[in-house]
Write a structure and sequence with these properties.
By secondary structure, the chain is mainly alpha-helical. The chain has one domain. Helices cover 82% and strands 0% of the residues. The protein is globular and about 55 Å long.
């Protein structure tokens, strides 16, 4: 039975590459650089919660409700909008002058800020309609022929591995900022903002092409 848990860990490890280049993962890195480890951790919690929800929906067959074009089109546009807003914010954000200042900012985080970061991570991950396709394949193959307990252990293993790696990304991204000058951080924000805005454009165009949205404007 516990072999399903370790199998889930291995599957989660195998997902590092596709998830590493994802927009949510990149947002964790950028948030950790700008706001510190704890903000990056909060974003990672939101991403993990959305992964757990997506796995549960796929496992219990509720993806049949959301596996329709209208839902995916709305999710695609909403996800692109959220990415665009985050990208513009990052592009315009001023760099923090020192590691000490980042610690002071972390101490001022209130519950509203905490839930804001968690919500941002949840939305960036959940509103990507193409993640649904990935999770359907993972859950259908990973839980096929398994009892409920084994299936839950499998999904738990996947979630733990992804969350752990997100925390490691947030930690190391924050640590390297000690060695970066304000000028380098400023350039990093600009580059990160452009990448996020480009990701929003790609998601929007991909959604339009995938579901023939352009036909409506002919």
């Amino acid at each position: 039975m516990f072999s399903s848990f370790f199998y889930g860990l291995s599957v989660g490890l195998g997902l590092l590459l596709p998830f590493l280049v994802g927009t949510a993962s990149f947002a964790i890195l950028q948030t950790s650089v700008n706001k510190g480890f704890y903000s990056g951790m909060q974003l990672a919690i939101g991403v993990s919660l959305s992964d757990i929800l997506l796995m549960a929906l796929c496992y219990f067959g509720l993806n049949q409700f959301t596996d329709n074009e209208i839902f995916k089109i709305i999710s695609g546009f909403a996800g692109a909008g959220l990415l665009l807003a985050f990208g513009i914010y990052t592009f315009q954000k001023k760099s923090i002058s020192s590691h000490t200042n980042r610690k002071k900012i972390q101490l001022k985080i209130n519950w509203l800020g905490v839930f804001s970061e968690i919500g941002k991570g949840f939305g960036l991950n959940f509103l990507n309609p193409f993640l649904w396709i990935l999770w359907v394949g993972i859950i259908s193959n990973g839980t096929k022929g398994k009892e409920s307990i084994s299936a839950i252990l499998f999904m738990t293993g996947v979630a733990i591995m992804l969350f752990t790696t997100d925390l490691l990304k947030a930690f190391f991204a924050n640590r390297i900022t000690i060695f970066l000058s304000p000028k380098v951080l400023h350039v990093t924000n600009k580059v990160a903002g452009i990448i996020l805005i480009s990701g929003a454009a790609i998601l929007l165009v991909h959604t339009c092409i995938e579901y023939n949205i352009f036909v409506l404007f002919r």
